Amino acid sequence: MTDSIPDKTATVVPQADEEKASNAPVEKSARVAVIAEPDTTHIDTSDEEKEKEEEEEEETDVDDSEILEDLPDDTEEIDLIHSKLFTISKLGLPRFTHLKRLCLRQNYIGALDHTDFDTLAELEELDLYDNRIKNVGDALNKLSALTSLDLSFNNLKHVPHSLAHLTSLKTIYFVQNKISHITGLEGVGRTLRSLELGGNKIRKIEGLDALVNLEELWLGKNKITRLENLGTLKKLKILSIQSNRIVKMENLEELESLEELYLSHNGIEKLEGLDKNFKLRTLDIGNNFIAQLENISHLSQLEELWMSYNKIATLQSLEPQLANISTLETIYLEGNPVQAKEGANYRRKVVLALPQIKQLDAT
After folding, report:
1. For residue 43, what are the domain limits?
2. 157 within some domain
3. Could you tell me if 336 and 317 are in contact, meaning their C-beta atoms sit under 8 angstroms apart?
4. For range 171-199, the mean pLDDT
5. Residue 56 maps to a domain
6. Does 33 fall in a domain?
7. Which of 4, 5, 19, 241 has the most beta carbons within 10 angstroms of its beta carbon?
């Protein structure tokens, strides 16, 4: 173990390579015992013999049961990142009854057992990012204080049905799994504030009706074809559906609290459907097929407009659509046909039409 442990906090990482030194003492880390042999190089031996007799480091795996053995029972934070764990059953987690945060990122954990978690009634954050978990089962059912759950980069095919037991859950990260349907969220509708389901196999927006307090919804890099079933998300502030298959901006009128909308890398052809979204501050519709800047002059709180790589061929709509929006500071138009068409006059014309902006494109 490390020589000193911060009060009630333990960060346990794999042993880094140590500098070779003669007569080095045996050192032991959380995952690796490093044994350095003394230098036995003799005078008048050949270079080859000297090389063979050089001090070597020998790494020996430490048993999982030894990793946390020196930590006090009242430890509140444990980090076991990239620790070559295949299971957590030998860690002795049940004795840490005051644990608030447990991070098990980047391991090889394939299954979870409720006996490892049942006593962790005070646990608030559980991070299992980048493991091999296929099913949660009932392992987390007694974590009623849990507010943040990260199961991103695992092998989940379904949203865990046991979420209903997590009555304090505010943030869910299920990024880059194999989830095809949005289900099982009814039980966390009262508490959930942020839901991240990017990088899955979702084709339809559904199963969100109960999430009346949701503020952030992240659905990028899926296979969604339509904006729908968002009507109950009255408190939603951020909606990100980048890199999907959406062709029309629609069904956004109920999202009156929306402040940030990210729709880049889709197949949208017309800028529309924002009539009731007066609180929008950021609008990202880059990398689509929009040919006309229109229907946004009423967005009086808009600060950033990202429209790079669309089909905008003229700057004529800039002033009537955006000149009266005093809050506008940033606009991205690079990669549109109008940039090449205007050539050296492009930047000057944009700035003349929109004197309030502070940034045009990436420069």
Report:
1. 9-61
2. no
3. no
4. 97
5. yes
6. yes
7. 241
